[in-house]
Amino acid sequence: MDAEKLLSLAIEFHGHKCPAMPLGLRAGLAAMKTLGVQRASNKELFCFLENGPSHATMCFGDGVQVATGCTYGKGNIEKLYYSKNAITLVDVKTMRGVRVALNPEFQRAGLNSEFVNLRKKGVQPKDIPAEIVEPMIENIMSQPDDVLFKIGDVFDIEFEKSRSTFYWDECENCGEIVFAHGLRLKNGKKLCLPCFEGNI
């Protein structure tokens, strides 16, 4: 899928037009190009996303997911909570990775843009005029990788991949199905985490 088709898919997935999401899209594409890999259909790739819990430009993460195929649903992306716009993409077969981070100079200009000034005033992204946001997106999609990003060298990496489980049981308190990672034992009863912690 070419970059323009991916951008359309990403905008539909993300829900609004903004500059941060296309930056994530481009970061994912740059990392894949550097590693010489294709978008993950299954779990061929793993992504460490450096976004934080609540900050401007978090939309970056949605672009990364669309570009790389590393998604929360597939379990092949992990958020590191560094509050930065950067990723490390790993080719799981070769265990080689590359880190791609936003170029501070480019990001600084974006954070001082009219788009961000309006966001600071509480204007929602979908309410920002097209004449402000669309040139930003066009600029991002047309820039060379080295203008947008700092791309590190490819390196060998070791990390423990979490294994999927098909084992499940019923919580003996609420009756809901819970998979093995979330089961806890309390007073001889198998409980889900909320029941174990007394939240249900």
Global Rg: 20 Å
**Broad structural category:** alpha+beta
Number of separate structural domains = 2
User: Could you give a short account of the major beta sheet?
Assistant: 6 strands, mixed
Query: Count the helices. How many?
Result: 8
Rounded mean pLDDT is: 95
Helix content: 25-40%
Proportion of residues in extended strands: 15-25%
> What's the helix-strand series?
HHEHEEEHHHHEEEEEEH
Could you give a short description of this structure?
The strands form three sheets. Strands 1, 2, 3, 4, 5 and 6 form a six-stranded mixed sheet that branches. A two-stranded antiparallel sheet has the order 7-8. The chain has a two-stranded antiparallel ribbon with strand order 9-10.
Molecular structure report:
With 200 residues, this protein is of the alpha+beta class. It folds into 2 domains: 3-156, 2-Layer Sandwich (60s Ribosomal Protein L30, Chain: A); 165-200, Wheat Germ Agglutinin (Isolectin 2), domain 1, CATH 3.30.60.20. It is 36% helix and 19% strand. The protein is built from 8 helices and 10 strands. The chain has helices at 3-14, 20-35, 60-68, 104-111, 114-120, 130-142, 145-148, 193-196; strands at residues 45-49, 77-79, 86-91, 96-102, 149-151, 155-156, 168-170, 177-179, 184-186, 189-191. Strands 1, 2, 3, 4, 5 and 6 form a 6-stranded mixed sheet that branches. The longest helix has 16 residues, at 20-35. The mean pLDDT is 95.
